[in-house]
Amino acid sequence: MHTENNQLFAVINPVAGSCDAETVQHTLTKACTNAGFSLECHFTSIGEKNEDIIHAVRQAVKNRCSRVVAAGGDGTIAAVGSGLVDTGIPLAILPVGTANLLARELDIPFDLSTACQLAVNGDKQRRLDAMRVGEQYFLSHISLGVYSKIAERTSRAAKRHFRQVAYIWNALPELLSGRTWRMALTVDDQKILLHASFIMIANVGGLGAAELRWGENILLDDGHIDICVVHARTLKDYLMLANSILWRRHKLSPKLTYYRATRNIQVTTTSKRVPVRGDGEIIGHSAVEITLVPAAIRIITPTTAEHG
Questions:
Q1: How far apart are CA 200 and CA 265, in angstroms?
Q2: Which of 71, 77, 78, 202 could make a disulfide contact with 12, Cβ separation 3.0–4.6 Å?
Q3: Cα separation of 143 and 140, whole Å?
Q4: Same-domain pairing of 206 and 101
Q5: What gap in Å lies between CA 225 and CA 228, rounded to an integer?
Q6: Is 277 within 8 Å of 141 (Cβ atoms)?
Q7: Is there a single domain that holds both residue 280 and residue 167?
Q8: Angle between the 235-246 and 164-176 helix axes, to the nearest 10 degrees?
Q9: Distance, CA of 57 to CA of 223 (rounded, Å)
């Protein structure tokens, strides 16, 4: 149901995985024209800070836009969504990134024309939980350890040209390194000391490959954040882990431990060189403090989208 003020503001990331910015703008403009929307586009640039994107979105909200579109990957969606927390303005997604984890979880169409039609005409919304780190909000994953080091090794150019295959190539040396770290994990003020190869803090359950998931009952809007601690070290350990994930026997795996947070999470490591990855982007090193914000952002979804 459209409002009287049918203004749409779009943030387009031209260097996202599969993005052709000109085609995105043209297709979205056509959908807006047919629906009686006016359209303003903001094209991100290399080196532009997330704070600048957040500011542009908040300015569009002040100018009374009725909905906002993010054309890019999970990192772009996180930055745009950060400007919409508690505004009531819905966010629509055009999934033209590399992994597109959030779009997959919400059944957003990957056909550009269909996604643009949904962005402009979609009425169904879901209110998603978010993970706040500083002034930014993340919707999919935050990780530390081997998983985040794989992302750190993978260049933007490699992601654009080889997409998810780029991660696989860089995963091999990290998985074979046998690295683990001493970490302090605090879940809702309860401190746990552990050794882990990586910690995955998941609001989205999907891995981005087929139907594989980090665990059971990881939901975007249940008021919880799930924490997956991975204890793998050798190639054999990782193969055992992969087998447990493939057959959805997560909680039977000796290489996985699960926790669930309802308020806050803190992770610190003994090494200063462990990257922290949030929604596809490196956001820090060695430590992260996360606050759960329930029902933080409204997302436009297909009417057929199911919870889970």
A1: 12
A2: 71
A3: 10
A4: no
A5: 10
A6: yes
A7: yes
A8: 140
A9: 25
Picking from 112, 70, 62, 64, the residue whose alpha carbon sits closest to that of residue 93 is 70
Alpha-helix runs per DSSP H in 179-261: 235-246
Domain range for residue 84?
A: 7-123
Q: Residues 232-245: pLDDT tens digits? A: 998 899 889 989 99
CB atoms within 10 A of CB 4: 6
Q: Are 118 and 109 in contact (CB under 8 A)?
A: yes
In total, how many domains does the chain have?
A: 2
SS3 306: coil
Phi and psi at 52, nearest 5°, equal -70, -40
Q: How far apart are CA 220 and CA 259, in angstroms?
A: 16
Q: Does the predicted model carry a pTM greater than 0.85? A: yes
- AA identity, residue 132: R
How far, in Å, CA of 192 to CA of 3, rounded?
Answer: 49
- Contact present, 151 and 167 (Cβ < 8 Å): yes
